[in-house]
C-alpha cells in the first residue's frame, strides 16, 4: 500500500472515529446529566462555570451561546439544586458572580471511578503522545467554539465562510 493511500485511509478512519467519539461524548454527558437530575444544557453550563471560574450571567451567556433569558432560568434551576451560588463580585459589589459547586458530582463514586479509569488509560501513552493528544483536543475545542459562535451568531452560510477561513489559517499546521 502506498504512503498516500495509507494516509488517505488514516484520514478516513479519523473522520469515522471522530464522529463515533463525538456521538459517544454527547450521549455520555446526556446520561450523566440525567443521572444527577439535570438537563444536558444545564450540566454543560455548570461545567463551563466550574472550569472557567466565577462569572456573571452575561459571561455565561457568551460562553454558551444561550440567550440571556435562558441563562437566567438555567441559573435559577442550578441554584435551586445547589449547583450554583450567586455572590457579590468582590471588585464591584453591584455585580453578581456565579460560582459553581460541583461537590455533589465530585463526591459521586461514578465520577471518581471514571477519573481513575481515564488516568489509567493515559498511563499507556508517552509524554510525547500525550502532548499530541493535548494539542489535538485543544485545537478541536477551539475550532468547535469558533464554528458554534459562527452558527449561533449569523447562521450556516456565514459559518461555512468562517470554516473556510479557519481551515486556511490552520493549513500550515501539520507539525
How would you briefly describe this protein structure?
This is MarR family transcriptional regulator. Helices cover 74% and strands 9% of the residues.
Secondary-structure class: mainly alpha
Question: What's the β-strand tally?
Answer: 2
List segments where confidence is low: pLDDT < 50 over at least 5 consecutive residues: none
Q: According to CATH, what is the class of the largest domain?
A: Mainly Alpha
CATH architecture of the largest domain: Orthogonal Bundle
If strands are numbered along the chain, what order do they take across the biggest sheet?
1-2
Which properties best describe this structure?
3 domains, Arc Repressor Mutant, subunit A, MarR family transcriptional regulator, 2 strands, HTH_MarR-typ, 175 residues, globular
Polypeptide structure, described:
The chain has 175 residues and is mainly alpha-helical. The chain has three domains: 1-35; 37-106, Arc Repressor Mutant, subunit A (Orthogonal Bundle); 125-175. It is 74% helix and 9% strand. The chain is built from seven helices and two strands. The chain has helices at residues 3-35, 40-52, 57-64, 68-80, 103-106, 109-122, 127-170, and strands at 84-89, 92-100. A two-stranded antiparallel ribbon has the order 1-2. Helix 1 (3-35) packs across helix 2 (40-52), helix 2 crosses helix 4 (68-80) and helix 3 packs across helix 4 (68-80).
Amino acid at each position: 500500500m502506498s504512503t498516500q493511500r495509507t494516509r488517505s485511509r488514516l484520514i478516513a478512519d479519523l473522520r469515522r472515529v471522530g464522529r463515533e467519539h463525538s456521538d459517544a461524548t454527547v450521549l455520555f454527558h446526556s446520561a450523566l446529566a440525567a443521572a444527577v437530575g439535570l438537563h444536558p444544557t444545564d450540566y454543560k453550563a455548570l461545567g463551563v462555570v466550574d472550569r472557567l471560574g466565577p462569572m456573571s450571567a452575561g459571561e455565561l451567556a457568551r460562553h454558551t451561546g444561550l440567550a440571556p433569558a435562558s441563562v437566567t432560568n438555567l441559573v435559577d434551576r442550578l441554584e435551586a439544586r445547589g449547583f450554583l451560588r450567586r455572590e457579590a463580585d468582590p471588585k464591584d459589589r453591584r455585580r453578581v458572580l456565579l460560582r459553581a459547586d460541583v461537590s455533589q458530582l465530585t463526591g459521586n463514586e461514578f465520577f471518581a471511578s471514571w477519573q481513575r479509569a481515564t488516568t489509567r488509560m493515559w498511563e499507556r501513552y508517552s509524554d510525547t503522545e500525550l502532548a499530541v493528544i493535548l494539542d489535538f483536543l485543544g485545537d478541536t475545542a477551539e475550532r468547535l467554539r469558533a464554528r458554534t459562535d459562527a452558527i449561533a451568531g449569523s447562521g450556516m452560510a456565514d459559518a461555512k465562510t468562517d470554516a473556510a477561513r479557519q481551515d486556511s489559517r490552520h493549513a500550515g499546521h501539520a507539525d
